[in-house]
Structures are given as structure tokens and as C-alpha cells.
Design goal:
This protein is an alpha+beta fold. Helices cover 40% and strands 10% of the residues. The protein is built from five helices and four strands; from the N terminus they run H-H-H-E-H-E-E-H-E. It has a two-stranded parallel ribbon with strand order 1-4. Helix 2 crosses helix 3. It is globular, with a radius of gyration of 18 Å. The N and C termini lie far apart (64 Å).
């Protein structure tokens, strides 16, 4: 009984720390553009569609993706955000798809890829390269 209570308290403490590190996890705002974003998320969330969220750096793409995820059928699964710009070109395949021990020099143990980690949830790929110009 005491162990269960301690485990529950540790869980709450870890969730609180995680929220402090990740920042807000809900979209806020009441302006007409934000209302349109909320409507779009409510339309897309119940589907099994893949979504592409476009916008300038700092506009809240990850927050929109997290909100969409939370309202989706996958909301009970993991949400795995990946800053692709921070992945080294040599390791991107291993990070995304994983590897087996001994598959290359330095692979000392099996490593789950992020696609496998996100299974049943959402893999959010951010900063997938240089911003591209809109083609008209």
C-alpha cells in the first residue's frame, strides 16, 4: 500500500516536471485564425489521415501537432517529437528505423528506432530541412 502511494506520487512529480520542460500543451487564443485552426484540428483528429503542418519557425507547429494528437484516436499512445535538423546525417537511418547489435561499427546493442517507439501513437518530424519556397 505504501509502495503504491509512493509510486503514484513519483508519477505525478515526473509528469509535473515533464510539463514544465515541454511547456504548454494546449493551443490558446480566440482570434478568428486560431478558431480556424481549432476547427481544422477537430475535423482531422477523428480520421486516420497523415497531417502535414506548415509554418515558420516558432509558430507552434509542434503544439498544433500535439493538440491534434491528443484529440485523435492515437491520443493514448506515445507522442514522439523529432527535431530532424539535430540528427546527424550518418545516424538518421539508425535513429528513425533502429539497428541490431553488430550491424555497423559501434552498434554495441540493439536500438529501437523512433518509428517503433511511436508505434500506436504519433511521430512528429520537425525541421526536415531548409524551409522551401512555395511553388506556384
Amino acid at each position: 500500500m505504501v509502495e503504491r502511494r509512493e509510486l503514484k506520487n513519483k508519477n505525478i512529480a515526473l509528469q509535473t516536471r515533464l510539463q514544465a520542460v515541454e511547456g504548454p500543451t494546449v493551443l490558446v487564443g480566440n482570434s478568428p485564425p486560431m478558431q480556424a485552426v481549432h476547427r481544422l484540428i477537430k475535423t482531422v483528429a477523428p480520421t486516420d489521415s497523415t497531417a502535414m503542418i506548415l509554418g515558420e519557425t516558432g509558430t507552434g507547429k509542434e503544439l498544433a501537432a500535439r493538440t491534434l494528437f491528443q484529440q485523435s484516436k492515437r491520443g493514448d499512445g506515445p507522442f514522439v517529437p523529432v527535431n530532424c535538423g539535430a540528427l546527424s546525417e550518418n545516424l538518421v537511418e539508425s535513429e528513425l528505423f533502429g539497428h541490431r547489435r553488430g550491424s555497423f561499427t559501434g552498434a554495441e546493442r540493439d536500438h529501437k528506432g523512433l518509428f517503433e517507439v511511436a508505434n500506436g501513437g504519433t511521430l512528429f518530424l520537425d525541421e526536415v530541412g531548409e524551409p522551401q519556397q512555395n511553388i506556384r
